[in-house]
């Protein structure tokens, strides 16, 4: 049995050292509000409209760093997160009629950086 534990430990060590695990930078840890996968287009648009009626959504407007007219999911997620961050990161501010979730890893991509207030 001891040989099996040593062998398994060795395999795990090889896997870790090969770089297959995602490394999370300590600065990128936090909480972000994003749309749940599978949320309907209608609900995503509703979430986007609601969030942008409450906060500045210039970043998802034409020319903004997160403007992506072909990807409503990403635009809605950015706006939902902006609202969540602006309202103090309370769970209830990331509800959006049950179409959202709290992410614990930074969902930023490319030049689109998700806001995170410390």
Automatic annotation (TrEMBL):
> Per UniProt, which keywords does this protein have?
Glycoprotein, GPI-anchor, Lipoprotein, Membrane, Signal
Q: Which residues form the signal peptide?
A: 1-26
Location relative to the cell: Cell membrane
The X8 domain, residue ranges = 31-114
Q: Specify the domain of life of the species encoding this protein.
A: Eukaryota
Q: Name one Pfam family in it.
A: X8
- How is this protein situated with respect to the membrane? Lipid-anchor; GPI-anchor
Task: Please name the Gene3D superfamilies in this protein's record.
Answer: 1.20.58.1040
Primary location class = membrane
Q: Which InterPro entries match?
A: X8, X8_dom_prot
PANTHER family tied to this protein? BETA-1,3 GLUCANASE, CARBOHYDRATE-BINDING X8 DOMAIN SUPERFAMILY PROTEIN
* Name the UniProt record assigns to this protein: Glucan endo-1,3-beta-glucosidase-like isoform X2
């Amino acid at each position: 049995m001891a040989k099996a534990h040593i062998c398994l430990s060795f395999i795990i060590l090889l896997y870790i050292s090969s770089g297959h695990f995602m490394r999370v930078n300590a600065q990128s840890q936090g909480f972000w509000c994003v749309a749940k996968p599978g949320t309907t287009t209608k609900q995503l648009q509703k979430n986007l409209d609601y969030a942008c009626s409450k906060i500045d959504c210039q970043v998802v407007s034409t020319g903004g760093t997160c403007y992506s007219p072909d990807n409503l999911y990403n635009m809605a997620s950015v706006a939902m997160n902006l609202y969540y961050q602006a309202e103090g990161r309370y769970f209830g501010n990331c509800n959006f009629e049950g179409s959202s979730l709290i992410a614990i890893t930074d969902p930023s991509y490319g030049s689109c950086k998700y806001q995170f207030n410390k």
